[in-house]
Design brief:
It is a single chain. By secondary structure, the chain is mostly helical. The protein is built from 6 helices and no strands. The longest helix is centred in the last third of the chain and has 31 residues.
């Protein structure tokens, strides 16, 4: 038991370091652009990101189903898959945004800015998109360390603490996984 407590402390520290690194990268990715070689095209990544998020949502629902059925092994496997999909998403998402200009909702001519005509054309849909996107981004940033802590509690055998945390972490993680693809489909007409 003492070994598990020590392991949990070490993993919690690592979770904070990972969270800090992720937030730093996400903060920098809109400001720093890394040139990519001529002929490289990462336009396939946004639908890939939406797919990874959608798959994560499906796997999270499967994990929930399995734990309700008291199938701990299937639940654990599902969570490992959800974590893997989320890591793959994060790496790909950061790489994309470090190398590709931002796509703006409503920018029909792809010039990087919104004209009064483009704003008028999208109307209130832009507001709905921005509210959805903002909630997605804020909750993704806030939930990251708690996903890791919930995982650590299960991994180190702190089952009751894991359950208590998972009750509120799960719906937020699911919301983030579901709103990612929705935001993508709303933005899809404006990709170059």
């Amino acid at each position: 038991m003492e070994r598990n407590i020590q392991l949990a402390k070490q993993m919690n520290t690592a979770a904070w370091v990972v969270t800090g690194a992720v937030l730093l990268l996400v903060g920098l990715m809109r400001r720093v652009k890394i040139p990519i070689p001529e002929g490289w095209d990462f336009s396939f990544l946004p639908p890939f990101h939406a797919t990874l998020n959608a798959l994560t949502a499906v796997v999270l629902l499967a994990a929930f189903y399995f734990i309700r059925q008291k199938n701990i092994q299937a639940h654990r496997r599902s969570i490992y898959v959800a974590m893997g999909l989320s890591v793959l998403f994060l790496l790909s998402y950061v790489a994309y945004h470090f190398t590709t200009p931002e796509t703006i909702f409503g920018d029909a001519n792809h010039d990087g800015s919104l004209s009064p005509e483009e704003l008028a054309a999208v109307g209130s849909a832009r507001t709905w998109y921005l509210v959805l996107l903002l909630s997605h981004i804020v909750l993704a940033a806030l939930i990251l360390p708690f996903i890791l802590f919930t995982f650590i509690r299960a991994y180190t055998g702190q089952v009751e603490r894991h359950r208590k945390m998972a009750r509120w972490v799960f719906p937020v993680w699911l919301y983030v996984a579901l709103t990612g693809p929705i935001a993508y489909y709303m933005l899809m007409p404006y990709y170059p």
